[in-house]
Amino acid sequence: MVVDRFHPIAPRPAPVPARGWLPWLRQNLFSDWRSTIATVALLAVAFCLLRDVAQWAMVHAVFAPDAGACQAARGVGACWGVVAEKYRLILFGRYPFDQQWRPEVATALMLAALVVSCIHRFWRPWLAALWALVLATFFALMGGGMVGLAPVRTDLWGGLPLTVMLATLAIFLAFPIAILVALGRRSGLPAISVACIVYIELVRGVPLISVLFLASFMFPLFLPQGMTVDVLVRVLIGIALFAAAYMAEIIRGGLQAVPRGQLEAAATLGLGYWQTQVKIVLPQALATVLPSLMNNFIAIFKDTSLVTIVSLYELTGALGLALNSDVEWRPFKIEAYLFITAIYFGFCFAMSRYSLWVERRLDAIRSR
Amino acid sequence: MLYQAVALLVIGLAVWLLVHNTHENLRGRGIQSGFDFLGAAAGFDIGETPIPFSPADSYARAIWIGVLNTLRVALIGILLTTVVGVLIGIGRFSRNALVRALCSSYVEVFRNVPLLLQLLMWYLLFVEVLPPPQAAWQVAGLIYLSKGGLAFPVPVWGAAHLWGLAGVLTGLAAGWGWRRWAQRQFELTGEERDRVWVPVLAVLLCAAVGAWLGGAPGEWQVPEQLPFAVDGGASATPEFLALLLGLVLYTAAFVAEVVRGGIQSVGRGQVEAAGALGLSHRQQMRLVVLPQALRVIVPPLTNQYLNLTKNSSLAVAIGYPDVVSIANTTLNQSGRAVECIAIIMVVYLTTSLTTSAFMNVYNRRVAIKER
Q1: pLDDT class for A1, splitting at 50, 70, 90?
Q2: Fewer CB in a 10 Å sphere around the end CB: N or C, chain B?
Q3: Is B112 close to A207, i.e. CB distance below 8 A?
Q4: CATH code of the region A95-366
C-alpha cells in the first residue's frame, strides 16, 4: 500500500485575529526575517530616492521662465521654467496666439461633456442632444469662419484640444462600427461573419502606425480624382477603424456571456433579431464588458499620441514643435516631457479609477 | 440569403471602387507601381545591421534587415517582459505591504503614460544623461555604457566554450532527470524534494567542469576604452537599448496585470483547501494556484506578446532601423506608398498569425482536460 507511507505533519497554531495598526505592521511589514529585510531595504532606497528627487524637482529647481538661471542650475535642479515659458505652445500647438481662448473654451466644453457622460444618472436621451451641441460648438470654435470668428485651418490645430478631440471622436465613431462587427461575427450568415472575422484579424494583426501611414499616404489614392479629404479626418477615420476591431472583440466577449435562455425567452416573446439584440442582448453584454471597454478607451487616448508620426501636432507633437527649434530651451526637454506625462497620466488614471468604480458598482448590483 | 448577397455586393463594390480609384490615381499622377523597385540599389545606410549591408545593396535586403531588427528587439523584449511582468504580478500578492504598494504603483505609472512618450523620454535620457564614449561608465573593465551604447564581452568560439556548452547540455539532462525522479517520489510518498536549485546547480557545475576540461577561460573578445571611443566586444546601440527598455517596462505593466488577474481568478476555496491540507504558502502557489491560473493567463499573455511586437514599430520615432522605419525611408525615396505599406502590413500579419498559432497549440496543452 502506498498510502501507508504518508505521515501526518504537526498541526499549525490557529491564526490569531488581530486588529489595530500594530498587529497590521507586524503582519504586513515584519512577518518574518525576509519581509523585514525587504521592508528595511525598500524604506532605505525610497528615502534616498525621494530625497534626491525632491532636491532636483523642488529645492534646486528653477520655476521662473529664465533660460539663464535654468542653464546655471543644469544637472542639479529641474528647469520648470520651460513649462512656464512654453506651456501655451505645448497645450495649443500652432493655434494663433491671440485666438487661444477658443481652444481653451472648446476643450473645457468637451471635457465637461465627458465628465457628465460618466454619471449614470445623466444617461438620458438629452445626453445625445447635448453631445451634438458640444461637438458643433467645438468645431465652430476651433474652425471659426462664422459669427465673427476668424477662420483657422485644421493644420494649425494642435496640442490638448486635438488629443481630446481625436480620442473622443474616435471612440464615438468606433463604437457603432464595433457593435455591428461584433454582431456580424456572431451572426449565422457565413458571408457576413467571414467578412467580419477577416476585418478584425487583419486590423488586429498590424500596428496602428501602419494604419496611420495608410490614412496619410494611401487614402488620397482611394478617392475619386479631384476629391480631397482633410488629413485630420483621414487620420481620425484610421484610428476609429483600428479601434473598432479591438472594441468588436471585447463586445463579442460580452455577447458570448449572455445566457442562451435570454435569447430563447426573447424569441418566445416574438421579438425579431434587431429587437432581441437591442433590447435584450446588448444591454447585458455591454454591462459585462464595461471595464474592458474603459481599458480600450484608455488605450485609444494613449494611441492618439502616435499621430505625431504622421505630422499632426497633438500634445506630444506640439512639444517637439515648441522645443526642437529653440536652442535656448531645448536642453530642458525632459522637464517638458514630464509635464505632458503628468497630463496623460492624469487623464488615464482618472479613467482607470472610474472603470474600477463602475466595476464595483456592477458587482454590487449583480450580487443583490 | 438576401442579406448575405447584399453584404457581399456592397463589400465587392467597395473593394472594386478602391482598387479602381487607386489605379486611376496612380496612372493620373504618373506614379509607377509594382514591386520591381525592390531590386534597385537602396542608396541609404542603416545604423545597425545583423547581416552585412552597404548603400549599394538592394531595397529588398534593406527591408530584410529591418525585419531582422524587428524580430531581434521583439524576441529579446518578450523574454525580458515575461520575467519582469511575472515578478511584478506575483509581487502584488506579497505578504509585505511595501512590496505590494511598489508593484501596484509601478503598474499604474507605466500603464497610464503613452508608450511613444516613454520611448522618447528613455531615448532622451540615453543621449543626454549618459557620459560621452571618451568617459564611458564601466563595470570591471568588461562592460561599458555611454552615449555610444552598451559594449560587453563576447566569447570567441573555441574548445573551452564548446566543452562548456556540452557541460550545460549534460547538466540540463541531469537536472531534467532529477526533476522527473523527484516528481515520481512526490507522487509515491508525498515527500517534497527541491526541484529548482538542484537542476540549476547541476547545470552550473557541469558547465564549469566542461569549461575547465576544455581549458578555460578560453578566448573572449573584451571591449576596451580607447581615447575617443569604446571598441571591441559586442555592442548595442542607444536606439536599441531605449526601444528595448521602453517596450519591456511598458508591456511588463500589462503582463503584471494579466498575471494578477489569472491568480485572482483561482477561487479562494482552492487556496483555503490547499492550506487545510497542510501545504505551505509556496506549495499552495506552485501546486494549486499557478497551474489553474496559467489557463487564464496564457491567452491574454499572447495578446501582450503580439502588442509588444506591434509596438516595436514605434522605433520609427527614435530612429531604430526596424521594418517600419526602413520601409518609411524606402517609401520617401521611391514614392511607392502602396507597396511599402503593404510590405509593413504583411510582415506584421505574418508574425502575428504565426505567434498566435504557436500560442494556440500551447493553450490547447494547458487547457482543462475534461474527462
Answers
A1: very low
A2: C
A3: no
A4: 1.10.3720.10
Query: Residue B180 is part of which domain span?
Result: 156-220
Whole-angstrom Cα distance, residue B6 to residue A127? 34
Cross-chain Cβ contact B113/A302 below 8 Å: yes
Structure confidence at residue B107 (pLDDT): 93
Of the candidates A169, A188, A350, the residue with the CA atom closest to the CA atom of residue B3: A188
Check which CATH number belongs to the domain holding B270 and give it.
1.10.3720.10
Find which of A90, A206, A228, A356 to mutate to test the B interface (most B CBs within 10 Å of its CB): A206
B342 falls within a domain: yes
Q: Are residues B77 and B181 in the same domain?
A: no
**Domain identity same for B286 and B163:** no
Shared-domain flag, residues B248 and B101: yes
Whether the bond between B321 and the residue before it is cis, its omega within 30 degrees of 0, is no
pLDDT of A174-208, one tens digit each? 999 999 999 998 888 888 888 898 899 899 989 99
CB contact under 8 A, B349 and A189: no
pTM: 0.86
B350 and B246, same structural domain? yes
Q: Is residue B256 part of a domain?
A: yes
- Mean pLDDT calculated for residue range B82-101: 90
Chain A contact set for B4 (CB, 8 A) = 189-192
Q: What is this model's ipTM?
A: 0.88
C-alpha cell at B87: 515578478
A180 touches chain B (CB under 8 A): no
